Amino acid sequence: MIYKMIYQKNPEKVYFADESDKKTSQKYDLAYPFKEGLAPVKQGDEWTFIDKDFKPCPVQFDGVGFFSEGYCQVKKGDLWYYVDKKFKLHGLGYRFASSFSEGYAVVVKDGKWFFIDKNFKKCSQDFDQAYVFSEGYAPVQKDGKRYFLDKKFTLRDCDYDEIGAFSEGFAAVKQGDKWYFIDKNFERHGEGYDGVYPFKNGCAQVKIGEKYYFINKDFTSRSKGRKYFYSDYSEGLTAVQEKDKWFFMDGQFNLLGEGYDYAGSFEDGYAPVKIKDKWFVIDKNFNICGNKNGYDQQVVFRRAD
Fold it and tell me: Residue 137 forms beta bridges with which residues?
């Protein structure tokens, strides 16, 4: 199912429509894309979810996350819980609750961070800080030291001041005032950067001095340096501004597209672009989809999983 998210101005609202515009949702103060068949929406101070028919679910919360692996974190009062697809409440009530990733979630209770499984049972020791599993490892902190935790809940010692999550086989690590990448053999790569961001679609953004670059996994090829932060690669492309026009850049750092007044990220094969005072949606071949005459508001095409 392909659907549209339409961002209205004056007043600022967002609503959903099907591909033909025959079926639309009500307008919301805030909304996010569908994940696992449900989309979070906010009206006033209350959050709920809508299904693929754009019908709101008969539950309200003070805060919500995104569905992941069958569950979503929701806030009731000051505490976070989990709900399943039938909106049954699970968990003990936490000060913080992450999405599920690779079968586990991170929660905070009584000042301690730990992991729970999908039976909502504690399955790790306590930590001072912890992040979700990614590619088999989770960055954690205990007694002032940083470790990678594996799926057997064994700590892997690492001599770095800061560590990030693994993404596409590499994790960012900091030693002193410089950042590097390590692979899953915990071997270090890179020349030492002033800032780094995770690998996505084969490229990672790094900061050298006052400029930002993209690098490939050979750690030698890099894009033209720019003084502003790039958007992340998504589906093999990233939107970049060149002088007064926006283009898309591929993994070989080639500029593509005709030059737009604004360009957003590709998601589900589509990206929003602005030409003069109109918004359009383009596909990966840079062809205009939907209304060829454009829209007055920004429109995003997405697929509901």
Answer: 134, 150
Please identify which residue in the block is written with the tokens 């209770």. Answer: 109
Long-range contacts, 283-288 (Cβ 8 Å, 24+): 284/235, 284/237, 286/248, 286/256, 286/257, 286/258
Q: Is there a cis peptide before residue 198, judged by omega within 30 degrees of 0?
A: no
CA distances from 14 to 5, 208, 298, 299 (A): 7, 38, 10, 10
Q: Work out the average pLDDT over 250-258.
A: 93
Quote the pTM value.
Answer: 0.90
pLDDT exceeds cutoff 90 at 91: yes
Mean pLDDT of the chain: 95
Terminal alpha carbon distance of the chain: 8
The two tokens of residue 143 are: 């007694």
Long-range pairs for 91-95: beta carbons < 8 A, 24 or more residues apart: 91/116, 91/120, 92/120
* Domains of the chain, CATH where assigned: 61-156 (no CATH), 158-229 (2.40.10)
